[in-house]
Structures are given as C-alpha cells and as structure tokens.
Design brief:
The complex is a heterodimer of chains A (144) and B (488).
Chain A: H1 5-27, H2 37-66, H3 76-95, H4 107-125
Chain B: E1 9-18, H1 21-33, E2 40-44, H2 51-59, H3 85-92, H4 96-108, H5 120-133, H6 136-139, E3 140-142, E4 144-150, E5 156-161, E6 172-181, H7 192-201, E7 207-209, H8 215-223, E8 227-231, H9 235-251, E9 256-261, E10 269-272, E11 275-277, E12 279-280, E13 283-284, H10 298-303, H11 308-318, H12 327-339, E14 342-346, E15 348-354, E16 360-366, E17 369-375, E18 377-380, H13 392-400, E19 429-431, H14 447-463, H15 472-483
Helix pairs in contact in B: 1-14, 3-4, 9-12
Classes of the chains: A mainly alpha (144), B alpha/beta (488).
Bound molecules: flavin-adenine dinucleotide (FAD).
Flavin-adenine dinucleotide is lined by residues 17-23, 43-46, 52-53, 56-57, 60, 68-70, 74, 144-145, 182-185, 236, 384, 393, 433-434, 445-447, 450 of chain B.
Chain lengths: 144, 488
C-alpha cells in the first residue's frame, strides 16, 4: 500500500468500524470465555475500541518510519507484522485494567478475537476495499 | 465546408485517438460508468489495444511466458484491480504450490520476495476478455488520424484517413463534443552516434535498437562466439542481458558482453536520508519506473501541488534510468563478472566506425582516456521517447489549438488531464500517456497511470453530465458483472 497519513487514519477507523465490528459480532459467541454473552461482548468491543484508539498513535509512528523508505510505500507484509506490536500493547492495556469492559479477559479469547479482526481488516485493505471505493487507493487511503 | 470538400462527417459524443492501452482503459471506465457504445469512437491504426505494447515488448525480449514490469494491482482489464493478477494466477493454478507461490510473493513483496509481476500472456488474455465484454470492436474505427481541430460552434473535428479500400473517400471526419488523445510514444529515439553510424555506413545489422526487431543478433551469437556492446541501464538493458546470458547457458553461446554505462551508480543515492534510492554495480534500483507512491500515496499527493521548476526538480529526483533489483538478474551478472564474460565500461560514446573482420568499433571517452571496443554487435537499449513535435497530431495541436508545453517539455495537461488551453465551448480535449509526462501526475506511461488518468477524465466528464458519477453502488454492481463476465 502507499498510504498518506490522513489515509492511514481514515482507513483504520473505517475498517475497524465496519469489518472489525462485523467480525467481533460474529466471533465473540465462539470465544472460550466463561462469562455471559453480554459481558463477553463488552470485553470484545472494549478491545476493538482500544485497537482503534491506540492505533491512531501507531499510525503516526508508521508514517514516520515510512519517511525512510524511498518509495514511500508500506509493504503488505508490514500490515500483518504490526499485529505483533499492536496486539502486545493492547494486551498490556487489558492486563492493566485500562480497557473498559475487558477486565479479566482470558489470553486465549483475546488472541483469537484480535487475530480474526486483524487478518480480516488486513485482507479487506488489500483488495476488496477497492471494489466499492474506486478512488481510495489513488488517494493514499483517504475516504473523505 | 467539409461536406463541400467531399469529406463525410460522422457524429459522436467522444472520440479517443490512438486505440492503445490508454484509449482502452478510458473506454472501459466510460462504459462501466454507463456510456453507450454509440457515444464513443476509437480512432486507431491498430486492431487490438495491446498490439503496439505487444510489439515493443516482444522485440525488447518479453515473450508471452515472461513477466512484465508492473505489479499485481496494475490490471488494465479491471478498473478495481480486484482480483489482482496474483490472486487470479493462484486460483488458476493446478497444484498447491502453484496456488501458494503467487500469494506468498504478493504478500511478502518487496521485502522477502521480488515484486509479483504477471505473465504478459495473462495480461493480453485478460484484456481480450474485457474488450469483448464492453463491445470494444463496435466502437473501433480504423485509420490514421491526421488532426484534431476546434470547431467554431464548440466541440472538435477529428480527421482520419481510413485504410485503402475501406471507405469511398480518402478522408473521413468525426464531429464530437469531446476528444481524448492516447497516441502513445510520439516517436522512436535512437542514440545520435548510433544513428549516425547507421546512416553513414548503411549498416543496420550490426548496430541495432532494442525496440526494433533484432533476433538475428541472438541467432548469430549462438552460432559463433563474439563480443556484443550493450548501451543503457534501464529495464530493457536488463532484459537484453538476460537474453544474452540465457543463450549462453542454454545454447552454449560464447558471447562476451561489454556493458556501457553513461553514469555508473555505485550505491545508494539521493538528496537526503528520506530520499535515498538503492543502487550498485552501475544500476539504480527501483521496482517501477517511479517510486511506488507516485501512483497513489505521498508522492502523488505532493506532485499534484507543484508547479514549474519545483515540479521539474522533484521529477529529477525521483526519475532517471532505473531497473528492478531482481534476484535472477543479480545472480546472472555476478556470475558473469566472476567468470569474466561480463564487463562494464563507463563513458560517453564519441563515435562508431567499422573495424576489421566486419566488426564495429565503439570509441568511448572514459575517465582514463579514449577506449576502443571492437564488437560484432552494438545494442542500444537507452530510450524510447522523442520530442512530442514528432507526432503530427500533437504538433498540429501546439500550432493551431492553443496547447502548450509542461515543465518537462511535453504536452501540458491539467490535473483532470484536460489539455490546457484547448477547451472548445462545452467541449473538452484530454490526453494521457507518455506525451503528458511532466504533469501533476508522473506515472502516466503505465497501465495503472493510464487508469488513474481515465478515472480523472471519467470524473471530469461526469461532472458535465456525460456519464453518471461512478459511485459506490454502481461500482459494486458493475464489479459483480465483471466477475460473471456479463456485459456492462
Ligand atoms: C518495452 C516496454 C515495456 C513496458 N512494460 C510495462 C509494464 O510492465 N507495465 C506498465 O504498466 N507499462 C509498461 N510499459 C508502458 C506501456 O507502453 C504503456 O503502459 C502503454 O502501452 C501505453 O499505452 P498508450 O495507449 O499510451 O500507448 P500505446 O499502447 O502505444 O498506444 C498508442 C497507439 O496509438 C496509435 N496512434 C498514434 N498516433 C496515431 C494516429 N495519428 N492515428 C491512429 N493511431 C495512432 C499508435 O499506433 C499506438 O498503437 C512498457 C513500455 C515498453 C516500451
């Protein structure tokens, strides 16, 4: 991808609010948690919110790193690998009780939910997104 | 007036001149946006949009099974680039390995793998399918376009000479509100010293250009060992070297290669740590002819805001001759250097002259003085683009219709690809492709760049009501039709 900073932020928020929400709704009932479904949903959406919010900061950092690249691109693979640093930070936030609704969330449930959302968003950003939004990839990922 | 002169006049809404890939992707966009075939005429001297591209790639050593330069998402047959060529290749594979390999490559490019690039044969097939889907042939008019002129009443008149025997008159005119020019390369450019040799000694066998047929060189080199001099440091030079080395490996050709650089790139280069391009062994390395973000990211956004000298300066920084750093080519040349059959020389060519035993001697001015290189063949792989004036239609436009030059000396276009200064009443004249290099968008002479231009033109035409705006709903429904190969 060849994102601009505005494009990064918009694409992240848009995809988490659409693909992220749908996948969260679908995957949460299947997660290995002992709590009632309402509690599980609160935890999942708390995590999703944290990924979006912390992600805005991450995008600034990625944009900075991108400046060292001659092509000013962001290879597809980076979009997948950044799941590691971002996932770790969100998990630390969960453990520190900083994510609303996610106190006591099991590690396995977190990994599955986070992983499914991440891969879903990554796949959409690398193809299907161009179908409804013909101009998106030529505008650095901006939707507005 | 024309009728009096006996020139029949046809009416249509939009004429596109050229009929190459640039015309094709524009017509594709307009058809998908909702234009009927009757609103469009493609005036062209070729039968298939990929014909000229195929000719140039063939002679410059990309046969049908070879892979091209542009990437998986440069899909001239599909305005969405989904599914991309890598995905299509995966799903067409008949083994698990064949399925996974393109997906792995496209997911890990350019870090762990070279860029995925499609086979040229697959690109042609996909365009043929799309041409049928949008009824391209119904819009095609054969002939040589002579000129495009503004009409007093608004709109344009395009004059074409049909092939002999195809029409009762020598000339035919098309009256249209809008015109698009997609005429490709204005002309072929040969290195002046090589051209001089050819005309002075009448020898076009030993000194050849990479963009003209020159198979006899390879045939002859397989038959007997000889030296060949290759000029140039772009992708075409890479391909010529690949062919020469493959012939060495497969057919035991004893070819000795002298590779001549005008500027020798020793390593990474650029104005700052934020703008450093890789390089080495003479070459500047880059996946595509400009940095990737030119087609959609930061550099596209930046160039769009620049005028005059500032724009030219950025072109200078990101442009220049370059080639992709492919693992295969790196290995070939490393082997050649090691075994001594590939050597590089740096300098300005002064003169070519016939030598003894039917050789050509290249005299090169190097840092260490004059060097004479006798060789059986000289292959010029330096460049293709000539002055836009060499194209008759463009020259006429500059002289009679108010068109001008951009900071790089080519045809000056707006951000919408409208040719500045040529508006005619409600009619607009657009241009895309190599003739417009130097504008607000640098990636013009590529499939993706032509599609970006087509999108801008289509949107500009939509704002005047020529076609409906191509929004989310229509885009999705048209994509579904593409997937099922249904007509637009
Ligand atoms: C060797 C080579 C390899 C390339 N590889 C790639 C690649 O991998 N990926 C990529 O994206 N791009 C590549 N390109 C660039 C590629 O050529 C362009 O993307 C594309 O073909 C240009 O399309 P076009 O329509 O502008 O020109 P063309 O395809 O050349 O079409 C223009 C047509 O207009 C016709 N014409 C001109 N004047 C008249 C007239 N007066 N009347 C009637 N017809 C006329 C010409 O005959 C020509 O057929 C490559 C180019 C070359 C030379």
């Amino acid at each position: 991808m060849v994102p601009t900073l505005a494009g990064r932020l918009q694409t992240r928020l848009f995809l988490l609010a659409t693909v992220g929400v749908v996948l969260t709704v679908l995957v949460t009932p299947l997660l290995p948690v002992d709590a009632p479904l309402g509690t599980a949903y609160r935890a999942s959406f708390g995590v999703l919110f944290a990924v979006a919010l912390l992600g805005l900061g991450w995008e600034l950092a990625y944009h900075g790193l991108q400046q060292f690249r001659w092509e000013k691109d962001w290879p597809t693979m980076f979009g997948l690998l950044t799941a590691l640093n971002e996932g770790l930070l969100v998990w630390l936030a969960v453990r520190a009780d900083a994510v609303p609704g996610a106190a006591g969330l099991a590690g396995s449930a977190f990994v599955i939910h986070f992983g499914v959302v991440w891969v879903g968003v990554w796949l959409c950003a690398n193809g299907p997104m161009r179908v409804p939004f013909l101009r998106w990839r030529f505008h650095g990922g901006r939707l507005l | 007036m024309l009728a009096e002169a006996g020139i029949p006049v046809h009416d249509t809404s939009l004429v596109t001149v050229g009929g190459g890939i640039g015309s094709f992707v524009l017509v594709d966009y307009l058809r998908i946006a909702g234009a009927p075939t009757s609103a469009i005429r493609v005036l062209s001297n070729i039968d298939h949009p990929w014909q000229t591209y195929r000719y140039l790639t063939r002679v410059s050593q990309i046969p049908d099974h070879e892979r091209i330069r542009s990437d998986s998402g440069s899909t001239p047959d599909n305005i969405w680039a989904f599914p991309s060529y890598a995905v299509r290749e995966a799903f067409a594979a008949r083994s698990l390995r064949g399925f996974l390999a393109p997906l792995w490559q496209v997911a890990t490019e350019p870090v762990l793998s070279d860029y995925f690039t499609p086979r040229i044969g697959a690109v042609f097939e996909s365009m043929a399918r799309e041409a049928d889907r949008i009824s391209y042939r119904e819009m095609l008019v054969s002939g040589q376009v002579r000129m495009v002129r503004r009409r007093a009443g608004g709109g344009y008149l395009t004059i074409i000479t049909p092939p002999k025997g195809h029409a009762p008159t020598r000339r035919v005119a098309f009256r249209s509100q809008h015109v698009h020019l997609g005429v490709g390369y204005p002309g072929l450019k040969f290195l002046p010293d090589l051209q001089e040799y050819r005309s002075r000694y009448g020898d076009v066998r030993r000194v050849v250009n990479a963009y003209e047929p020159h198979e006899h060189v390879y045939d002859e080199l397989i038959r007997r060992p000889a030296t060949v001099v290759v000029h140039g440091a772009g992708i075409v030079a890479s391909r010529i070297l690949d062919r020469l080395i493959t012939d060495r490996d497969r057919h035991q050709a004893g070819t000795h290669i002298v590779h001549l650089f005008r500027t020798y790139v020793r390593g990474s280069h650029g104005p700052s740590v934020f703008m450093r391009r890789r390089g080495g062994d003479g070459w500047a390395y880059q996946g595509f002819n400009y940095p990737k973000s030119v087609w959609g990211g930061q550099l596209k956004a930046r160039m769009r805001t620049l005028e005059g000298d500032e724009r030219k300066a950025l072109y200078d920084t990101i442009g220049g001759t370059n080639t992709p750093r492919r693992r295969r080519w790196q290995a070939q040349l490393a082997r050649g250097r090691h075994e001594g059959w590939y050597v590089t020389r740096v300098g300005e060519v002064e003169r070519l002259a016939p030598g003894t035993d039917g050789t050509v001697v290249t005299r090169v001015r190097t840092a260490d003085g004059m060097l004479e290189i006798p060789a059986a063949y000289v292959i010029d792989a330096t460049g293709l683009v000539a002055d836009i004036r060499e194209h008759r239609v463009l020259a006429d436009l500059l002289d009679h219709s108010g068109a001008g030059h951009n900071p790089l000396g080519r045809l000056d276009v707006e951000r919408t690809f409208e040719v500045r200064g040529t508006r005619s009443g409600p009619g607009r004249l657009y241009a895309s492709g190599a003739a417009t290099l130097g504008g607000y968008f640098p990636g013009v002479d590529t499939f993706l760049g032509l599609q970006i231009a087509a999108q801008e033109i289509c949107d500009d035409l939509a704002s005047q009501g020529f076609v409906p705006h191509l929004g989310v709903a229509r885009s999705v429904s048209q994509w579904a039709r593409w997937m099922r190969n249904q007509p637009v």
